[in-house]
């Protein structure tokens, strides 16, 4: 009896959200999936009712598209690696700080997260531009200006800037769960600081690192504003190509196919990663 | 007829029986404790009485009225929760006044009744504070006041003292008893602490594995535990094998091995006498100082026996010391062997 | 009691500089008196801020974003609070599915959501409509409110509700006088986080806005792809100031560290 009552109340309270999410999330995604199989003609546009796999064939055969997927993949992978290399030690350093500083720096490092990504991208273009502040400084010191804007370097640098908080947060969270006296126990048993780090701390924060990796990779692979503003017309990533297909080429089915592929790859990476993490760490850490 | 009655009360969670066919009668003005280890069904029983848990079978009668399926609000019982469950966003006064406001009592009456109950729990100076500004003991008093102010027919206390430290717990035990006597309210308290149950209850109900195994006044419960479980759970006990002598009285078997009876002997009932005399010979293996008492563990041919002696200022016995043990045979208790299935 | 060595602290200093440099530079350049993007070496000037306020299109976009964020965050809160209570209070078939569905916009790329909404809105003939833009934002920001309210609802002492119930409170009174005040920090924090996320959203919005409904981030994005001048720095500095103000409020009502790292 109480199960029925719970079910009724549960659905009643979720009904508004459910209606909205069905109408504006499930339905449009389904429509986009359908669209990606529609025939497209440059003269007429989308031909409803006519079906093709041409878009997906294009993705696999046209070097323009698969190179962009490959580029997106290696840029995202590199950004993820850099975030691990910078974010994990930084989170550890933060966790070892004294009380006022720890929260001050934590907030200082994490709050850029809440500032518009357009603003942050613009900030980097100020720094990295041909006559940007870094090049002005180089010239003032007698060097020759370096081309940084509209190169992978600029995109990667700005992506690391945007993604670093997403790595620090989960690592920080798992560091919070650590028993500080485990460090001391290891030290009292004769371990060096480096051994404590490698044998006690790292294994325990690994789940945090792995979930951070997942978020950073996923967000980098689908990032739009950073490559759009700092990659220029040449350096395209998947998201900027989708934008071109929709709003310049007006080839919506092609754009839809790329978007669907992006979503599927993202979900696939997340699911397999999750499974890996679960198998490896969740059990041993009893989460 | 009793004031609060549980008749064959049952609670099943799927295949698990949390409470099995529980019968209990509580008289008006009585203070009854439900005592048992965690998971024994005592809290579920209380939650069924309060109306937070659906009853699977059986009936709950309050002053002759069947409240088995009544909503918590319409039962009008006073409940004090283990976590106190104070409303953190309200002052002490507003917390206490909440139930009266729900009953649409006039502002003047609320003012009067809240002041009176705050006086009763000695919180008048703290009326305008928020729960977070109070100590654990003070929060406990607010929870008590909030439950009492609606003048409920029955007060239900769910582990009311388990969040307090030892000193405060003892103080609050007496405080709860004082208030209960002053108001004369029928009270049912759930606890896992046998000392707490013994010290302030009129009657103690021992529960184990979803069943009531003994209902007695505290002194009688301590002196005459029915089962082996109760003798160990309520106070300390030496469990000994025994049999009946020619006259049918129970006696301890002085050789190792099985006797037909299980006997309980309280540690403070045993006398220590010079070696060579008494009923049993032994040697002190461990000695613990408990302040008002000494606790000895004594090795004997029938196993280790715990003895407690009053600290009367004389030098205690050293470890290794040989002693004799003696006891009045009428203080041996025969325990029922057939225990409740786990 | 700092346990970090000098090497660790230098590393930390570099990270902090890296994280703050672009924001600090934007704020400094906004005050330049020059016509080019340069640091204000020769005195501070407000001319580029004045230039912003003379741009009717930017002002319009600012109001679009502000109204959008306020309304969308409010709607998201109105649907997320009951959903969060359903998910935390009741056990029913499909509960985990609903929870996953309502949180899924966090892991679905905004780009994909943007093109999906564009398709739907185009078929409905409502693309560029402010109302539908708003609904799109509600979908995207609901998870933020949901997460905080779920955390608050799990964190609150349920026996306080039982206490109120046994004292005679009706279902509605219970929600109004006990549950809502107790989860209020989570609700308010969720609203503010949703507000910030809606106000900053660019990737989805760029697909489903028209020139008249363009939000400020979209306007800035489009402007920055075409030309770069100090006015853009002034707009950015204003956005930073507004975000900082919101964050200070967020810190007061809920605790910024709790929002950011999810400590409860």
Automatic annotation (TrEMBL), chain A:
Keyword check for Cytoplasm: no
Compartment list: Cell membrane
Domain ABC transmembrane type-1: 69-273
Transmembrane regions: 12-37, 68-92, 104-128, 148-169, 205-230, 250-273
Listed CDD domains: TM_PBP2
Predominant cellular place of this UniProt entry's protein: membrane
Keyword presence, Membrane: yes
UniProtKB keywords: Cell membrane, Membrane, Transmembrane, Transmembrane helix, Transport
Example GO BP: transmembrane transport
SUPFAM superfamilies per the UniProt record, alphabetical: MetI-like
One GO CC annotation: plasma membrane
Pfam families for the chain: BPD_transp_1
Topological relation to the membrane, as annotated: Multi-pass membrane protein
Sequence similarity: Belongs to the binding-protein-dependent transport system permease family. CysTW subfamily.
Stored PANTHER family: ABC TRANSPORTER PERMEASE PROTEIN, INNER MEMBRANE ABC TRANSPORTER PERMEASE PROTEIN YDCU-RELATED-RELATED
Record-given protein name: Putative spermidine/putrescine transport system permease protein
Species: Pseudomonas graminis
TrEMBL record, chain B:
Pfam families reported for this sequence: ABC_tran, TOBE_2
All residue ranges annotated as the ABC transporter domain in the record: 4-234
One GO biological process term: quaternary ammonium group transport
Keyword Nucleotide-binding tagged: yes
GO molecular function per UniProt: ATP binding; ATP hydrolysis activity; transmembrane transporter activity
Cellular component annotations (GO), alphabetically ordered: ATP-binding cassette (ABC) transporter complex
SUPFAM superfamilies xrefs: MOP-like, P-loop containing nucleoside triphosphate hydrolases
Keywords, sorted A to Z: ATP-binding, Nucleotide-binding, Transport
Keyword Transport among record annotations: yes
Name the UniProt record assigns to this protein: Putative spermidine/putrescine transport system ATP-binding protein
Organism encoding this protein: Pseudomonas graminis
TrEMBL record, chain C:
Assigned GO CC terms: plasma membrane
Subcellular location: Cell inner membrane; Cell membrane
Domain of life: Bacteria
Keywords of this entry: Cell inner membrane, Cell membrane, Membrane, Transmembrane, Transmembrane helix, Transport
Major localization listed first in the record, in broad terms: membrane
Residues covered by the ABC transmembrane type-1 domain: 62-250
Membrane topology reported for the UniProt record: Multi-pass membrane protein
Entry similarity comment: Belongs to the binding-protein-dependent transport system permease family.
This protein's name: ABC transporter permease
């Amino acid at each position: 009896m109480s199960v029925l009552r719970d079910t009724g109340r549960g659905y009643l309270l979720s009904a508004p959200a459910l209606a909205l999410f069905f109408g504006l999330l499930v339905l449009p995604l389904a429509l986009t999936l359908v669209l990606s199989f529609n025939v497209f003609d440059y003269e007429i546009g989308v031909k409803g009712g006519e079906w093709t796999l041409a878009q997906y064939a294009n993705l696999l055969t046209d070097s323009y598209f698969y190179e962009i997927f490959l580029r997106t993949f290696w840029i995202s992978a590199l950004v993820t690696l850099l975030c691990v290399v910078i974010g994990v030690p930084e989170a550890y350093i933060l966790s070892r700080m004294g009380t006022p500083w720890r929260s001050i720096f934590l907030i200082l490092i994490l709050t850029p997260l809440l500032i518009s990504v357009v603003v942050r991208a613009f900030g980097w273009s100020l720094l990295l531009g041909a006559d940007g502040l870094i090049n002005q400084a180089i010239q003032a010191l007698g060097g020759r200006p370096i081309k940084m804007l509209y190169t992978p370097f600029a995109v990667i640098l700005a992506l690391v800037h945007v993604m670093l908080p997403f790595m620090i947060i989960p690592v920080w969270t798992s560091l919070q769960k650590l028993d500080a006296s485990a460090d001391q126990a290891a030290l009292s048993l004769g371990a060096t600081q480096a051994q404590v780090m490698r044998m006690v701390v790292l294994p325990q924060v690994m789940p945090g690192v792995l979930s951070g990796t997942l978020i950073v990779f996923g967000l980098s692979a689908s990032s739009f504003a950073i490559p759009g503003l700092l990659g220029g017309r040449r350096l395209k990533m998947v998201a900027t190509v989708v934008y071109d297909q929709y709003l310049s080429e007006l080839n919506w089915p092609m754009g839809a196919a790329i978007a669907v592929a992006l979503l599927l790859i993202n979900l696939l990476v997340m699911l397999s990663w999750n499974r890996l993490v679960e198998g490896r760490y969740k059990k041993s850490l009893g989460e | 007829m009793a004031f609060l009655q549980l008749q064959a009360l049952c609670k099943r969670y799927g295949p698990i029986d949390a409470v099995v066919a529980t019968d209990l009668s509580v008289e008006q003005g009585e203070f009854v404790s439900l005592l048992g280890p965690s998971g024994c069904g005592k809290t579920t029983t209380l939650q069924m009485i309060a109306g937070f848990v659906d009853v699977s079978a059986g009936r709950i009668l309050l002053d002759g009225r069947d409240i088995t399926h009544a909503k918590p609000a319409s039962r009008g019982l006073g409940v004090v929760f283990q976590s106190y469950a104070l409303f953190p966003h309200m002052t002490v006064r507003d917390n206490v006044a909440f139930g009266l406001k729900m009953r649409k009592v006039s502002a003047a009456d609320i003012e009067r009744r809240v002041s009176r109950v705050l006086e009763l729990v000695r919180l008048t100076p703290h009326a305008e504070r928020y729960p977070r500004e109070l100590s654990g003991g003070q929060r406990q008093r607010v929870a008590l006041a909030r439950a009492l102010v609606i003048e409920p027919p029955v007060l239900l206390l769910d582990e009311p003292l388990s969040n307090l430290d030892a000193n405060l717990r003892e103080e609050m035990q007496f405080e709860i008893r004082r208030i209960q006597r002053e108001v004369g309210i029928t009270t049912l308290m759930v606890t896992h602490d046998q000392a707490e149950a013994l010290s302030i209850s009129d009657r103690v109900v021992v529960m184990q594995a979803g069943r009531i195994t003994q209902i007695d006044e505290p002194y009688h419960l301590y002196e005459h535990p029915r089962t082996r479980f109760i003798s160990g759970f309520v106070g300390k006990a030496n469990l000994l094998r025994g049999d009946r002598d020619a006259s049918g009285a129970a006696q301890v078997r002085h050789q190792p091995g099985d006797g037909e009876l299980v006997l309980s002997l309280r540690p403070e009932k045993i006398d220590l006498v010079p070696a060579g005399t008494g009923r049993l010979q032994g040697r002190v293996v461990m000695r613990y100082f408990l302040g008002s008492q000494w606790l000895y563990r004594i090795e004997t041919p029938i196993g280790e026996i715990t003895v407690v002696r009053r600290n009367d200022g004389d030098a205690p016995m050293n470890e290794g010391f040989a002693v004799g043990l003696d006891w009045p045979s009428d203080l041996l208790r025969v325990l029922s062997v057939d225990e409740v299935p786990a | 009691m700092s346990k970090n060595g000098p090497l660790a602290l230098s590393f930390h200093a570099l990270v902090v500089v890296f994280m703050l440099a672009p924001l600090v530079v934007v704020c400094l350049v906004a005050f330049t008196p020059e016509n080019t993007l340069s640091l204000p070496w020769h005195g501070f000037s407000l001319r580029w801020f004045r230039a912003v306020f003379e741009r009717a299109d930017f002002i319009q976009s600012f109001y679009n974003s502000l109204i959008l964020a306020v309304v969308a965050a409010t709607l998201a809160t109105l649907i997320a609070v009951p959903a969060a209570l359903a998910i935390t209070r009741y056990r029913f078939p499909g509960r985990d599915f609903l929870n996953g569905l309502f949180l899924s916009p966090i892991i679905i790329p905004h780009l994909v959501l943007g093109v999906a909404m564009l398709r739907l809105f185009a078929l409905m003939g409502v693309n560029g409509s402010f109302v539908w833009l708003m609904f799109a934002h509600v979908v995207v920001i609901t998870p933020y409110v949901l997460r905080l309210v779920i955390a608050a609802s799990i964190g609150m002492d349920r026996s306080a509700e039982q206490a109120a119930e046994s004292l005679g409170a009706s279902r509605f009174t219970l929600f109004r006088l006990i549950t809502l005040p107790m989860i209020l920090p989570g609700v308010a924090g969720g609203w503010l986080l949703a507000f910030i996320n809606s106000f900053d959203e660019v990737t989805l919005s760029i697909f489903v806005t028209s020139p008249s409904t363009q939000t400020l981030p979209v306007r800035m994005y489009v402007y920055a792809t075409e030309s770069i001048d100090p006015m853009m720095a002034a707009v950015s500095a204003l956005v930073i100031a507004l975000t900082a103000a919101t964050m200070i409020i967020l810190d007061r009502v809920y605790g910024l560290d709790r929002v950011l790292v999810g400590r409860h």
